[in-house]
Amino acid sequence: MKKLLAVAVTMLCLSGCASIVRDSYQSVPVQANVDNVDIEITNSEGRVVYTGQAPTSVLLKTSKSGYFSPEKYTVKASKEGYATQYETIDWHVSNWYIFGNLVFGGLGLLGWFVVDPLTGEMYYLDEVSSVYLPATK
């Protein structure tokens, strides 16, 4: 029983709140006002991470490798007869990171400053990316 309790306490101490309930990847739906829009998604370093057509859902990493490094994406949407548009998929800090680590007090400090910032699971991306392409004349 003591070993089980010790393992449970160790696991709690070595995890952050956001890391318990979130993942470092998120599925983001990409929508457009017209069907079969060509999209290209680039990360904050300018590397193309997805090419395809909208509407679709894309699995994106919520953070870059590194400490306190959220990820941000740019969606380029284009279709013949329409003006090319750009939309940002931005990052946000999870409420689980803020409030969950507060609730756990001292144990939360490890989650606040070590586990969640290193795993990137303290971040989430916009829930959906919607692009409006105006028709060209």
Beginning-to-end CA distance, first to last residue: 75 Å
Unreliable runs, pLDDT <50, ≥5 residues?
5-21
Overall SS class? alpha+beta
Strand order of the largest sheet: 3-2-5-6
Task: Describe what you observe in this structure.
With 137 residues, the chain is α+β, with helices and mostly antiparallel strands. The protein is built from 4 helices and 9 strands. The protein has helices at residues 2-13, 17-21, 95-103, 106-119; strands at 25-32, 37-42, 48-54, 56-61, 73-78, 85-89, 91-93, 123-125, 129-131. The strands form 3 sheets. Strands 3-2-5-6 form a 4-stranded antiparallel beta sheet, with no helix packed on it. The protein has a 3-stranded mixed beta sheet with strand order 4-1-9, with no helix packed on it. The chain has a two-stranded antiparallel sheet with strand order 7-8. A hairpin with a 5-residue loop joins strand 2 (37-42) and strand 3 (48-54). Helix 3 (95-103) runs antiparallel to helix 4. The chain is elongated and about 70 Å long. Mean pLDDT is 80; it is low at 5-21.
